[in-house]
Amino acid sequence: MTPNTATVLQKNIALLTQNDIPEYGYIPLHNKALPSLVKLREMVELLRSIIFPGYFGEAILSSDTLEFHLGVNIERLYGMLKEQIHNGLCFNKTDQKSDKSKAVASEIALSFINKIPELKRLSATDIKASSDNNAAVPGYGEVIFCYPSIRAVFNHRVAHELLKLNVPIIPRVISELAHSETGIDIHPGAQIGEYFSIDHGTGVVIGKTSVIGNHVRLYQGVTLGARRFSPEQDGDTLNAPRHPILEDNVVVYANANILGRITIGKDSTIGGNVWLTNSVPPGSRIMQQKAVVSSFNDGLGI
């Protein structure tokens, strides 16, 4: 190593270890346990093979061996859950009471295992909705194996259950795994009912406090978002309901933007490219048949 090389390296090491740089000095050194992105991905795929045996994971040649395969995989899943939940619980902890966190992680992992049959039931309703609403689908197997929307909604249902169990960081990681794979962005906090389907799906965004009823169908590019708020507003804004409510049997066509805490009444249809910031009653048909030109100041809070 030449003297000049050593000087350059040492200079930049010194800069990167300073904690008073205004632009990045606020980022703390993270010296606690972290969930593993690799293991979380593996964990979700393992859970996918448990709920959809034969479609993912090892091939199952006979129903006679199903119980054995499920037993092995669920025991393995429990071990992975305990480890990753423990690391998630330590993510923002100020103390390091590892033994207590491990005990809590074990209880949460067991609680989640108890949710798997319900996750399977909900996922089955999503598969049926995706198949029944699409004339191009030859059968349920293709939906399970191929459809990105099923992958994204499955990840969401897993993440949502973990969030309800007060697991930090991991639900968001699981949601972002599906986001990166499918282009469908569903916050783990969103509440989604049965028989939910997304057709095509690319570009769909569903915000944290969205509430979606049963038998709801979305098309590509739909946004269930929040209206803008300024950083100076009360911090409670972050936790206040600020995303739409879609009641049962609502259909939202491509590239519609539904913003704010508004309610789309049951049995309503929202047309493509609609920009909607007001509630609509049940049975509504909302469409934009021609361009609407308007002017406004400072975004009108949008």
How does the SSE layout of this entry go?
Blueprint (H helix, E strand, L loop, with lengths): L2 H15 L19 H15 L14 H25 L7 H16 L2 H17 L7 H7 L1 H17 L5 H13 L2 E2 L4 E2 L4 E3 L5 E2 L4 E2 L4 E3 L3 E3 L19 E2 L4 E2 L4 E3 L3 E2 L4 E2 L4 E2 L8 E2 L16
Characterise the protein shown here.
The protein has 302 residues and is α/β, with parallel strands linked by helices. Helices cover 41% and strands 11% of the residues. It is built from eight helices and 14 strands. The chain has a five-stranded parallel sheet. The chain has a five-stranded parallel sheet with strand order 3-6-9-12-14. The protein has a four-stranded parallel sheet with strand order 2-5-8-11, with no helix packed on it. The relative contact order is 0.07.
Brief account:
With 302 residues, the chain is an alpha/beta fold. It is 41% helix and 11% strand.
**Broad structural category:** alpha/beta
Largest sheet: 5 strands, parallel
In round numbers, the mean pLDDT is 89
The main sheet orders its strands as 1-4-7-10-13
Taking the alpha carbons of the first and last residues, their distance comes to 56 Å
Runs with pLDDT <50, length 5+? none
CATH class of the largest domain: Mainly Alpha
Order of helices and strands: HHHHHHHHEEEEEEEEEEEEEE
Number of separate strands:
14
Tell me the name of the CATH homologous superfamily of the largest domain: serine acetyltransferase, domain 1
- Put simply, the count of helices is 8
Q: What is the overall silhouette? A: globular
The tally of structural domains comes to 2
In the CATH hierarchy, the third-tier topology of the largest domain is known as: serine acetyltransferase, domain 1
